[in-house]
């Protein structure tokens, strides 16, 4: 039977009412890394999504990379997140927490004790982060993680996953995309280590695979997803052979039984085809399935309804929408009825209050 965006679908232990996912969207509205009541309103407005994935949420203070993004490592943060998840569930929604460690994409002013950001290798990214009130500034030079520090970060992911479930989330998504710490370990451009976590594809994938095993063991494979972005140039990331790398990664992930794999196709928030970086996503999906994976295949980047329906006909199970969800809290209904979309007020994307956040009108209004 032909799949449509509006079919119910099973995801782990959750029954989703449709195949439409709200992608993670950083909005920089959590002062002191603590979620606010305004955030609870924002997510609850979008509860008609089949699944909401929260904005990137730092697993530790060291994992912070931007001003006013939320964390998941303090009691006050968890108490505040409980109000968010409660609000979403009260509207009948489902919400996963995206677990985030930015690695080298940070600034000394955001780090514990003003220390250097950490990375697989001491290679500074040619990218910027967001500070208050300065705005966008160049990231700081990172230091290379010592080998004995790495197991501690793996445990931090596990602990954050446990905290997320404690805070009422229905599951977690590990952020392995967009040039952040997990992705930095995967890529030849940012990982120049010569120990067991660098060099070969097998070694560079070790950090990711250790994290995923720990998180699955802690909260259950049916509540664990992963986000990857094979060819995005985001945050100055590149690899010598992304096809070989990611085909290997998904084959190794398959036995873990993740509930979904979330793929950013092309450049994050940009073109679906990246010049000079060809990639065969169908081959990656075949590798995932041939290795025995049963979890959902979630696609993301620049989707509208026709393109989403085409993706579903070609093997996708879920379609994530990002920018459209910022301006359209009732995106499901707008897609269903082919209604016009509100336009995003880009000057209100990062920081601020309700304006450009919770004041976008729904169709009924």
TrEMBL record:
One Gene Ontology cellular component annotation held by this UniProt entry: cytosol
Descriptive protein name: Alkene reductase
InterPro entries: Aldolase_TIM, OxRdtase_FMN_N, Oye-like
Any Pfam family hit: Oxidored_FMN
Keywords: Oxidoreductase
Domain NADH:flavin oxidoreductase/NADH oxidase N-terminal: 5-338
Similarity remark: Belongs to the NADH:flavin oxidoreductase/NADH oxidase family.
Keyword Repressor: no
Natural source organism: Ramlibacter cellulosilyticus
Gene3D superfamilies assigned to the protein according to its UniProt record, in alphabetical order: Aldolase class I (3.20.20.70)
An example Gene Ontology molecular-function term: FMN binding
CC cofactor: FMN
Domain of life according to the entry: Bacteria
């Amino acid at each position: 039977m032909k799949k449509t965006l509006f079919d119910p679908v099973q995801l782990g232990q959750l029954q989703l009412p449709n195949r439409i996912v709200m992608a993670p969207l950083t909005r920089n509205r959590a002062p002191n890394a603590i979620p606010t009541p305004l955030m609870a309103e924002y997510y609850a407005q979008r509860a008609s999504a089949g699944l909401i994935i929260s904005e990137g949420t730092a697993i530790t203070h060291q994992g912070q990379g931007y001003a006013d993004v939320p964390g998941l490592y303090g009691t006050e943060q968890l108490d505040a997140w409980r109000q968010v998840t409660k609000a979403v569930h009260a509207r009948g929604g489902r919400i996963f927490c995206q677990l985030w460690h930015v690695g080298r994409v940070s600034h000394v002013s955001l780090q514990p004790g003003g220390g250097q950001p950490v990375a697989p290798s001491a290679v500074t990214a040619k990218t910027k982060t967001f500070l208050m009130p300065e705005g966008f500034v160049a990231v700081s030079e990172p230091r290379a993680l010592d080998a004995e520090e790495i197991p501690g970060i793996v445990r931090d992911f596990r602990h954050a996953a446990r905290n997320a479930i404690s805070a009422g989330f229905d599951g977690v998504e590990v952020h392995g995309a967009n040039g952040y710490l997990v992705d930095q370990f995967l890529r030849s451009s940012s990982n120049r280590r010569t120990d067991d976590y660098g060099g070969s594809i097998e070694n560079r994938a070790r950090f990711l695979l250790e994290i995923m095993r720990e998180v699955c063991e802690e909260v259950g494979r049916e509540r664990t997803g992963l986000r990857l972005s094979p060819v995005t140039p985001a945050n100055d990331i590149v690899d010598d052979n992304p096809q070989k790398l990611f085909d290997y990664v998904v084959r190794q992930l398959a036995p873990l039984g993740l509930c979904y794999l979330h793929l950013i196709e092309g450049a994050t928030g940009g073109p679906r085809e990246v010049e000079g970086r060809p990639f065969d996503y169908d081959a990656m999906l075949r590798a995932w399935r041939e290795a025995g994976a049963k979890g959902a295949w979630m696609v993301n980047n620049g989707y509208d309804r026709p393109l989403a329906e085409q993706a579903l006909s070609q093997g996708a199970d879920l379609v994530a929408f990002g920018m459209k969800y910022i301006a359209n809290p009732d995106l499901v209904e707008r897609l269903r009825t082919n209604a016009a979309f509100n336009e995003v007020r880009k000057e209100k994307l990062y920081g601020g209050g309700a304006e450009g956040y919770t004041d976008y009108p729904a169709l009924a209004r």
